[in-house]
Amino acid sequence: MKIGKLENYLTKLYRVGAINHSRQSTLLLGAPGIGKSMTCWKLAEKLARATGKEFVDYDDDKAEMILAEPNKYFVFVDLRLTECEPSDLLGLPHKVNGSVRFSPLLWARCLNKSAGLLLLDELTNIQRPDLITVSYKLVFDREAGFTKFHEDVMIVAAGNRPEHSSVRAISGGFSTPRRASPRFSPGKRPCSPRLCLAVCSSSTYRPPVWTTGRTGWMRPTATSGPEPHTCS
Fold first, then answer.
1. What is the rounded end-to-end Cα distance, in angstroms, of the chain?
2. Looking at the 3D structure of the chain, how many domains does it have?
3. CA 165 to the chain's CA centroid
4. In a domain, 81, yes or no
5. Which pTM does this prediction carry?
6. Tens-place pLDDT, residues 46-66
C-alpha cells in the first residue's frame, strides 16, 4: 500500500468498526520518515470533522478541558514507546484502605471518556521485555492498566520493517518466539517495499510467526493462518 492511500483505508476501517461495534487495532510497518505518524495525525483530524467533534492533540494541560466535556472532543494521543516506562502505560500503584490500586493516567482517562486515536509509535524498536508486554496489552486488550478505552477509540501501532528496525521483536514480519507473538494478521490491502499493514485479529487467533525473505513474506512449515501478501 502506498502511504498516500493509507489515510482513506484507515478511515474506512474506523467506520466499519463503528458499524460492527468492534474495534481492531492496526499495525503499520514501514521505513523511517515515510509519513506514518503524520498520516495518523491527519487521520485523527479527519475523523474529528467526520464525527462532528473538536480535534485535540493531547497534552496533560488539556486533560481537564477534555474530561469536563468528553463528548465534545476527538482526542489524538501520540506515545513514542521507546521513550516510555511501563508505568507510563499502566499507571502508578498507591495504597488505599490497606489495598494497592493503580492511579489511572490522565491520557488514559481521556481515552476512557472520549473518542479518539491512540498512536503507539516505535513499537518494533522496543528493547525491554517488560515494556513490550505492557504495549501488547494496550493493543490487544484496549486498556491501560485497568482503564478501558472508549469504544470509539482507534489504536494504531507503527514501527519499522526488519531491515530498518533496531530490534526484531514483533510478529508479522519479525522472527520471534511463538509464545510472544502478537495477534496480528495481514491486512486485505497489498504491501509495498515501503509500507505493510496488518490488522489485529480476534482474541482467540494466534498466527504463525512470519519472517521476511528477499522476495517478501515467507511462511514457516506446519502452521495455519491466512496467507500474507507478498512484499516484492
1. 12
2. 1
3. 17
4. yes
5. 0.75
6. 999 999 999 999 999 999 999
